[in-house]
Each structure stands twice: as C-alpha cells, then as structure tokens.
Amino acid sequence: MRVPALFVFALLMVFGPAGASRADQSLTKDFRTFLETAIWPEAEAQGVSREIFDAAFAGVEPDLDLPDLTLPGETEAVSPINVQAEFKNGSDYLSERALAETVRSGKALLETHAGLLDRIEARYGVPAPVLVAIWGRESAFGNATIPHDAFEVLGTKAWLARRKEMFRTELVAALKIASNGDRAVRDMRSSWAGALGQPQFMPSKFLDYAVDFDGDGKRDIWNSVPDTLGSIANYLKEHGWQPGRDWGFEVTVAKGLSCTLEGPDKGRPISRFVEDGAARVSGRPFPGHELAGTGHLMMPAGRKGPAFIATPNFYVIKAYNNSDLYALFVGHVADRMIGAGPLVAPFASTDGLTRGDVAAVQAALVDKGFDVGGIDGLAGFKTRRAIGAVEAELGLAETCWPSRDLVEALGPL
C-alpha cells in the first residue's frame, strides 16, 4: 500500500512506527470489509462469479496516492491542485509542442488505415480524422503505457473518492468485463482514473459501446486497431454525431456579443451569430450548409483566449471526455491532419489561480444565486457565464474567466 509521506509522518508522531503499521493494517481491513459488504453483493447480483471477484482483488490494497481521495476521518473537499491535464491552462494543452507529434503521426495513420477508416465512416458516419485524433489523444495511438491495476484503482476510488457511486458502478462493470471473458483479470490495466484500453473507455462505456469491428468474436480495444477505432466511432454515433457537419470554427467575437451567451443550451442558427459580430478568423465565410444549422458560442478561456462557433458535434466529442479543451484538441488536431493551420488567437496567461481558488469563487457565486454547474474547481461554461454576469454587476470588464481582480472584488472567500 502506498501511503502519502505526510500521512505516515503524522502517524509516526502520534503512535510511533508500530502505530503506523497498525493504521496500515486497519485501512486494509476496512477496505476489504467495504469490498465484501458493498461491492460483492452487487457484483454477484449482476452475474459475477466468486472466482472472478476473488481473483480481481487478490493482493490488492488501497492506493492512497491516487488523486481526489478523502481518507477516513478527513473532510471531503475539492482538490486544490489541477491534476487532470484537460483542466489546466489551454496554452499548454493546445501548444504546438503538445499538438505537433499527434498531428504528424495522425497524418501517417490516416494513410495506413485508409481502407479501414473508410469502412468505419460508412457504417457510423464519423469522419476518419476525428477518430484518429481521439485515438492519439487517449493512448498515443496505442503506444501509451497503461500503468495501473484497474481493480486497485476502481476499488480505491469506489471506497474513498468524492464520486463514490460512480466508481462503484464502474468497479462492478470492470468485474463484468472479466466475468464475460472480454479480458482476463490479470490483464485489466487502467489509467489512474480507471479507463481501459486504447480508447480509454471507462468499464461501463466498454460494456455499452465497444464493438467487434474486425469480426473475430471479441471486443478487443486493447490490441485490435479495427475494434478500437470502430468502438470510438460507435460511441460518437450513439451520442448524436451529425454526419456532414463540422465540429466548429475559430472566430473573432465583437464586443457587443457577450461571452455570457456561451453554452450548449444557448444554441441558435449560425447565421444569427454572424449577424451579431462573429466572423471566421480565416476570413472565409461559413459554409452555406452550416449557416442555417445550430451553432453555439464557445469560449474556453472567456475573453482571455480563442473563441469558437461550435456545432452540436463539438458537444458529442465533449461527451467522450467532459472538457472543452479536450474537445478542442480533438477537433483542431483533426483539422490539422487535413491541412488546417494553427489556432490564431492565443490563450492569455492565467493569474495563477488553483482549482481550490476556483472552487472558492464558485461557492461565492452560488451564494449570490448563480448557477455554476457545481462547485468542483473547474471553470466550465456555467461558471464562465456566471463570472461574466457578476463582473457586470461589480463594474468589472466582462471576461467570463476567474481572475485575481474578481477574487478581490468578491471579498473574503
């Protein structure tokens, strides 16, 4: 069991070395009790055998190094640190350094797998560059090391994470994958979040959306390129991908077009956004077939970064990973693979606010009656809109982005 150094130090100060050992044993015992009383009955009810259950947890102990855990006796709180890359600064996530290798390798793979990708697009309606971009982002086209034991990760998070119910569902789903014979227990490796295989599906998503595209009788998202790409395509299709439409367009936004109009719930014809001062950075008009279609203003860093008119397909990509920057990465890489240039507008430097700082801002906004979409320390579109509205109330320039100026204007948080 890996126990954080500060936690061990505190135990040593109070109990000495023997006390720390007893605490380790106590945590492991509580973990085992949790698995037996909370997880086994549900797994058994869903057809998981005792043999599979015991094999999955043989030698497994809670991994206390995983992020977003609340140890027994601690108060549940949002982690003050931005752990997941998708929720850090967009200038890092969408830098040329981050993009270049994915674009270069993606172009080559579009050619290598052209026939396969044509067949997948014909069946599911999702363009090949989008599929390859997701493949590259999720697992470096299958080359990334998947370091963790899935049952250790999911078991720990089902016991100690903030979103316990979600991880309990995912843990049982992982047991079902092994029970169904899709993957041997010993080969169930995952990310620190519990995601599996080359598409990085959470276990429940594997059960719902993985496909056997190569026809060998197995849904193998670990080793089969056809199954990997077909499964990604099936996921997007089932989440509403609209064939024939783009994912979005980088735009300039006139001052009169408020950033508080952003969001998937504020869609309107793209022609209306054009009338109100949105223009493509390329200088070209929007494609004629897109003008009458629904568009959405999307400003992932408020007025401190690039702006986009996104189509509903942007939000389908976002359903794959609930991050604006992730969906932008995928859409932009897909465009770059077929000849588009870099983003024009830069992401401005941030004020150094942490995830914990943003959570405090969100709490203050909720106290003022604003809907921020949840106090999670992540500046999603509802938080950005609420910031823009409160900035107007406080006489600040409308940015729709958390800042030191806003923190000072809101007073003690």
Automatic annotation (TrEMBL):
Task: Determine if Chloroplast is one of this entry's keywords.
Answer: no
According to UniProt, the name of this protein is: Lytic murein transglycosylase
| Biological source species | Fulvimarina uroteuthidis
Task: Indicate the segments forming the Transglycosylase SLT domain, all copies.
Answer: 31-335
- UniProt keywords, alphabetically: Signal
Determine if Signal is one of this entry's keywords: yes
Query: What's the superkingdom here?
Result: Bacteria
Q: Lineage of the source organism? A: Bacteria, Pseudomonadati, Pseudomonadota, Alphaproteobacteria, Hyphomicrobiales
In terms of PANTHER family, this protein maps to: LYTIC MUREIN TRANSGLYCOSYLASE, MEMBRANE-BOUND LYTIC MUREIN TRANSGLYCOSYLASE B
Leader sequence range is: 1-20
Pfam hit, one: SLT_2
